[in-house]
Amino acid sequence: MTRVYNFSAGPAALPVEVLQQVQQELVDWHGAGMSVMEMSHRGKEFMQIAAEAEADLRELMQIPGNYKVLFLQGGASLQFAMVPMNLLRGRGKADYVNTGQWSKKAIGEAKKFCQVNVAASAEDRNFSYVPPQSEWRLDPEAAYVHVTTNETIGGVEYDFTPDTGDVPLVADASSHILSKPVDVSRYGVIYAGAQKNIGPAGLTVVIVREDLLGHAPSGTPTMLDYKIQADNESMYNTPPTFAIYVAGLVFKWLKAKGGLAEMERINIRKAQKLYGLIESNDFYQSPVAPANRSRMNVPFTLARPELDEAFLKEAKAHGLVQLKGHRSVGGMRASIYNAMPEAGVDALVAFMQDFAARHG
Ligand code: PMP
Prior knowledge:
This protein is 34% helix and 16% strand. It is α/β, with parallel strands linked by helices. It folds into 2 domains: 241 residues, Aspartate Aminotransferase, domain 2 (3-Layer(aba) Sandwich); 102 residues, Alpha-Beta Complex (Aspartate Aminotransferase, domain 1), CATH 3.90.1150.10. The mean pLDDT is 97. The site of 4'-deoxy-4'-aminopyridoxal-5'-phosphate has 11 residues, from helix 3.
């Protein structure tokens, strides 16, 4: 078996233990005589798989009882539309904080449904920081406040939980969900595409406070109404069964590792190793303000960009892949989600040190 260290932003590396379990159970799941892919979503085996996945996620994130957990499709991108569809509650306005490319996408979609107030924007400094809440200009009539708590492309992560009082706070947590404990009760909605820190693409997790259900206007398509999804336990139609099964195995893997507090400790250590090397070496730069450097997505540039190609080629030869930065920003980006072993970060740091020594 040859596994590389895969630094892709998503779909991203999965824990090898989970992949091996999937392999072992693939053809005949627990004596069912079939794979999970082939099971009825309404049969007792799959119902049990889905119920356990939800229970384990609730335990990991300590999700309060007055929140629903939805397993949907359409990616985080569909949530850019479902959030205004379900949360405007007859109001015509919503607040958005613009911290980068994913905030911009969310704002663009929301504009199809309401008047968007950009309460703060980091565009003035090329999306390299999170504007402190003291600088936000919230609209008192806004139906909700939307934030992107980790910008996957810019590598910018919130270092605080915004306080929006009685106005529901909505977070796109796609690229750092499960990387640390969060106080779910501070949010009205948390949503995330699965393909980074949860499981395979095709599954979207939405955690929504119950009082925010049932407000979609009457013309809302059935599948896009949170309440209908909640009332049907995410099985109004056929859910992405295999992705839910694999996500459930990832949740069990996280529990066995010690839960989210332990993951946070590991993630801090991994991120510090990488940022530490970048800081200590003039050959590499981080474009992000230190307080908002993401623990999950680490963009960096080489002092001599003409060496980018050689860097990527040599890294690949060392089994370190998918390090090319997003096409919109260039440079490099190492995504180091939960499933990236610390040994992978160590290998990257050692390679970067050696590359700088040879070319610096
Ligand atoms: N939000 C963030 C923060 C993301 O990183 C991504 C995917 N890279 C998206 C939204 C879009 O997710 P999806 O592809 O699941 O629609």
